[in-house]
Design goal:
Strand order of the largest sheet: 1-5-4-3-2
Distance between the termini: 37 Å
Order of helices and strands: EHEEEEHHHHHEEHHHHHHHHHH
Strand content: 5-15%
Structural class: alpha+beta
Largest sheet: 5 strands, antiparallel
Number of helices: 16
CATH superfamily of the largest domain: Hypothetical protein, domain 2
DNA sequence: CAAGTGCCTTTATC
DNA sequence: AGATAAAGGCACT
């Protein structure tokens, strides 16, 4: 099946799937394969066209964020030469509409890990506790359900090399399995309320909450601060903070809650209601071209 | 090749 | 409030 891409609404499949927002896509030749929900999706991009297999147009357009008016969003966040450089390099990078449950567990796993290791952990979880699905003679695995993770033994989770994250994943899975969160409701509530709810789960701090809000709960003002974005701020946006604040966070590797809040709030105020888009462009640019 | 460093941080404790 | 330490183990240099 083919989707015609409108030149006035840019899309960059490689940047979108490589930028670190999602961890379960792999490229085989020119095709991207990824398990989304119960099935394996297969996608490739040619000049002005997206070719998809094993899914329907409506679902894929929503998942890939193709309904976002990207031209308008990019013009709104184009505040200075640094973000403009990142946008020029990766025009068409879009924020996916990921499944909140998978996103939540993924980012609990993502703390203090590099992307390769995160992919490995999530693959381990899926192979051991998900269901096998096939496409083109490749094996894939669905992401484990809340029930599966809630009922998994400590030993099974330990084998997935989650480390100290295993107990957070397990506790959080049990809470989700007991219906202590309603993701569809969180999509409709505002940023602050949705964030406060996520912060109740073990293993979810400010940064993880902001990632879940941005990547799966339609909160595009969320501006997650990780080590890479902190570097970007220290390199290009120092002037927006006091000298003593900057020297304080330059010295230490970790941020206090208050310091995190200050950096994240800067992002939200400076870039506006699509700050999260700015964050992704800056993050991907910093990681790949610096 | 071994060993050190860093990793899209959170939590517990003082 | 703020500082400090601890918590897997993999990937990269």
């Amino acid at each position: 099946m083919k989707i015609k891409l409108n030149p006035s609404s840019p899309f960059n499949l490689d940047a979108t799937l490589c930028c670190g927002q999602t961890f379960r896509w792999d490229k085989q030749g020119e095709w991207w394969y990824g398990v989304v929900g119960e099935s394996v999706l297969k996608i490739r991009q040619t000049e002005n066209c997206l070719e998809i297999e094993n899914t329907d147009t409506h679902f894929v357009k929503n998942y890939l964020g193709l309904h976002d008016d990207l031209t308008s969003i990019l013009s709104q966040i184009s505040k200075d030469k640094h973000i403009k450089q990142a946008i020029a390099t990766f025009t068409g990078l879009r924020i996916l509409r990921q499944d909140p449950w998978e996103c939540l567990i993924s980012y609990i796993c993502a703390t203090y890990k590099n992307i390769a290791a995160i992919k490995r952990m999530l693959l381990n979880l899926s192979c051991r506790l998900g269901d096998k699905v096939w496409l083109d003679s490749y094996d894939f695995y669905t992401f484990p359900t809340p029930e599966k993770l809630a009922k998994a033994s400590a030993g099974e989770l330990a084998k997935c090399s989650l480390g100290y994250r295993a107990k957070y994943v397990h506790e959080t899975a049990k809470m989700v399995y007991e219906n202590l969160v309603d993701f569809e409701r969180l999509k409709k509530t505002d940023y602050d309320e949705a964030r406060a709810e996520l912060l109740r789960f073990p293993g979810i701090g400010q940064k993880v909450a902001d990632c879940i809000l941005l990547f799966s709960l339609d909160k595009f003002e969320a501006f997650p601060i990780d080590v890479w974005i902190k570097r970007v701020i220290l390199r290009h946006y120092k002037s927006h903070f006091s000298a003593e604040f900057i020297s304080k966070i330059e010295d230490k590797q970790s941020l206090t809650n208050r310091e995190y809040e200050k950096l994240s709030l800067f992002g939200r105020k400076y870039f506006g209601k699509f700050a999260g888009y700015a964050q992704e462009y800056l993050y991907h640019y910093e990681r790949t071209l610096h």
